[in-house]
Structure formats: C-alpha cells, structure tokens
C-alpha cells in the first residue's frame, strides 16, 4: 500500500536544477505563450533541487514571503513525514530564510483549541484542516482553508488572519462559504485571486468541479449577501447561481485544488533561470489560466494525480484547453504529469509570478 508519509513539497523556481531529493525546488525553461497549452513534443521535466531541514509531509502547499524577507509555507494537516513523524493537525506551518532550509514551526491553531465553527464540518474538536491558501494584505496574513471530512459534501471554507503568520497567532474570521449534504459540489480547496482591486475565491471540488465566488476586498467575505450556505436544492448562493469554471461530471476521478493566474505576455508560466519581466512591446490583452489537480492523490499503490491547465480571455470563463475543448466538459491540457521518480504531482499553488508549489510521492520510497 502507499504510505501517505511520502508526500512532500516541490517548487518550480528560478534556480539551478539539481538531483532529486525528498522535497525540492526545480526550474523549467520558458516556453512561448503558444507553447503553454501545446504538447507537440514530449515534455522534459527537470529534477527538483535539494532542500534541507524538516520539510517532508507538506501536502497541498501554500507559500508566502514575509515582509522581513523570509518564507512561510502551509499545508494540509494530518499527514506524516517520511521519517514517520506527524506534522500535526490543524494547519502545519514551516519557515525558511531562503526557500531551501525549512523548519517545522508547529500548527496554525493549538491542539484542541480549533475554531468552534469548524466542528460541524470535521466532526471533531481536534481535526485536520485541508488545503490552506495564505497571502499577505495590508499588514496581515490572510488564510483561507477547508474544514471537511473525507467523502462528505458537508464542507466549509474558513478564514483566519494573523499579524505574524506563525502558529497560535491566528484569529478566527468564521465561515466564508459552505456546502451541505445534497449539494453537487464541495466547498474545499480555496484559492484567492486578486485582480485590479477585485477579490475572487476559486473553490472545490472533487465532485462536479471548480467554482468561483466574488469577495469583498475589505472583509474577505462574500460580496453578494450575508448568507454563507449554498442552497443545495437550487444551487443558489444568496439568490445567485454559483459560477462554474471547470467540471469532470461522471468521471471516476475528480478535479480539485485550483488556482488562477493572469498572464499578459509570453514565456512566464514555466520559470527560467534567467527570467526577466515582460518587455512592454510584448504586452497584450491578458489570458486567465486555470490550473487544477486531476485524479486521485492518495489511493492505492499507484495514485494518478496530475496538473492540468485551461485558459480564457475572461476571468469567469469559458475556459478551454489547447484543442478548444471546454473545461466544463471535462477537458484540460496536461501541464505536469508524473515523470522519473516523481509520482502523482498535484495540490499545487502559485506564488511570486514564477513559482509553482506542489506535492507528490517519490517512486523510490513507495511502499507496495
């Protein structure tokens, strides 16, 4: 069987490639924008670079740079490091001065002191939360995260804020959006996207797919109305339809873990060792790229997680793959598949314009 302790973080960065290690940074050569959705030739992925410290067990990573110049990374709780040490429930947290040496700092919330409004969704006062999304705004760290239990639709996206981003410093801001039994999508895997002062949250969902919700940029809460609960009978939220961006209806394996990236010039998505900003002459109307994880991350001896990408000229869609296939009909271009010793990459997030963080298993450590 597959040991969940083998999950770790790996980051695409502007850095020199190095041999594979249990958690690492890696770099990819910059394609033109036309190549971003093209697979005319078989992709060649570099091996991740070495990192050090107590870094394994990072699942669904979210990385943020601190005002002091260091880095914090957060992940789903409940996993175990490859050495057999638990990384903690709640939201495990690591710090680094340079994105290379990592130190496990603990968890965002103290044991048995989790936010009370998460209990109906996790069925526990000491639960593991999933897929945090952390960013820094107006002098504070904002963390959206999932409260749920495996296999159920009764889930909630929560918000917490902190001045330091470190364990036991987070204030509970309550539920942002929630689904219940009978809904056809799941309020998990939040990802904040900010464009021209407007805030949006992409969410969901192993079941019918990825949704997007407008937020109030002052509060980080629902833009249209105070109700946080989706009406499962009608699919409405505050009397409005929830906009769908991508679906895999009737597929055996799901789609989840989305994030959106706005790109105004070619050659940025896959980071270069000599990356430089886009020349003004190459600027053009933006595309919005929607990345998501497909397949299963943690089932059986051969997980199938992989990262797909679609794009649209409008943030709210429609999104299409390289062949023009609709994301709402289960289409998506392969962006990062398993390769070499890297098995089932997914749970991705993006930071600093050219970084993609994701978790995966390592072939040489898999237990069958």
Description:
The protein is mostly beta strands and 368 residues long. Helix content is 2%, strand content 36%. It has 2 helices and 23 strands. The chain has helices at 33-36, 119-122, and strands at 8-12, 24-26, 52-53, 62-65, 71-74, 92-96, 101-107, 130-137, 140-147, 155-162, 171-179, 191-195, 198-203, 210-215, 236-237, 240-241, 243-246, 255-263, 287-294, 306-312, 333-336, 342-351, 355-362. The strands form 6 sheets. It has a 5-stranded mixed β-sheet, with no helix packed on it. Strands 2-1-23-22 form a 4-stranded mixed β-sheet, with no helix packed on it. The chain has a 4-stranded antiparallel β-sheet with strand order 8-9-10-11. β6 (92-96) and β7 (101-107) form a beta hairpin. It is globular and about 45 Å long. The model is unreliable at 1-36, 267-277 and 363-368 (pLDDT under 50).
């Amino acid at each position: 069987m597959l040991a969940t302790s083998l999950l770790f973080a790996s980051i695409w960065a502007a850095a020199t490639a190095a041999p594979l290690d249990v958690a690492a940074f890696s770099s990819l050569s910059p394609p033109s924008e036309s190549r971003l959705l093209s697979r005319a030739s078989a992709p060649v992925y570099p091996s991740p670079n070495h990192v050090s410290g107590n870094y394994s067990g990072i699942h669904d990573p979210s990385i943020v740079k601190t005002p002091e110049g260091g880095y914090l990374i957060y992940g789903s709780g409940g996993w175990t490091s490859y050495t057999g040490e638990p990384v903690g429930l709640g939201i495990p947290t690591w710090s680094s001065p340079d994105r290379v040496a990592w130190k496990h700092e603990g968890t965002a919330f103290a044991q048995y002191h989790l936010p009370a409004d998460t209990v109906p969704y996790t069925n526990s006062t000491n639960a593991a939360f999933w897929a945090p999304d952390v960013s820094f705004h107006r002098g504070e760290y904002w963390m959206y995260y999932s409260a749920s239990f495996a296999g159920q639709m009764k889930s909630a996206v929560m918000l917490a804020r902190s001045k330091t981003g470190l364990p036991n410093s987070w204030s509970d801001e309550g539920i942002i959006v929630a689904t219940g039994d009978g809904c056809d999508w799941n309020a998990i895997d939040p990802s904040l996207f900010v464009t021209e002062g407007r805030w949006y949250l992409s969410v969901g969902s192993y079941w019918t797919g990825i949704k997007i919700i407008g937020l109030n940029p002052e509060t980080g809460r629902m833009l249209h109305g105070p109700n946080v609960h989706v009406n499962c009978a009608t699919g409405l939220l505050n009397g409005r339809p929830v906009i769908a961006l991508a679906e895999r209806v009737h597929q055996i394996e799901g789609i989840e873990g989305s994030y959106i990236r706005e790109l105004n010039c070619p050659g940025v998505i896959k980071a270069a060792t000599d990356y430089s900003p886009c020349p003004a002459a190459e600027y053009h109307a933006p595309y919005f790229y929607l990345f998501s994880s497909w397949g299963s991350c943690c089932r059986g001896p051969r997980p199938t997680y992989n990262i797909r990408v679609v794009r649209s000229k409008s943030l709210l869609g429609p999104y299409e793959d390289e062949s023009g296939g609709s994301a709402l009909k289960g289409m998506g271009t392969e962006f990062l598949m398993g390769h070499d010793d890297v098995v089932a990459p997914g749970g991705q997030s993006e930071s600093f314009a050219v970084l993609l963080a994701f978790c995966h298993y390592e072939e040489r450590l898999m237990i069958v």
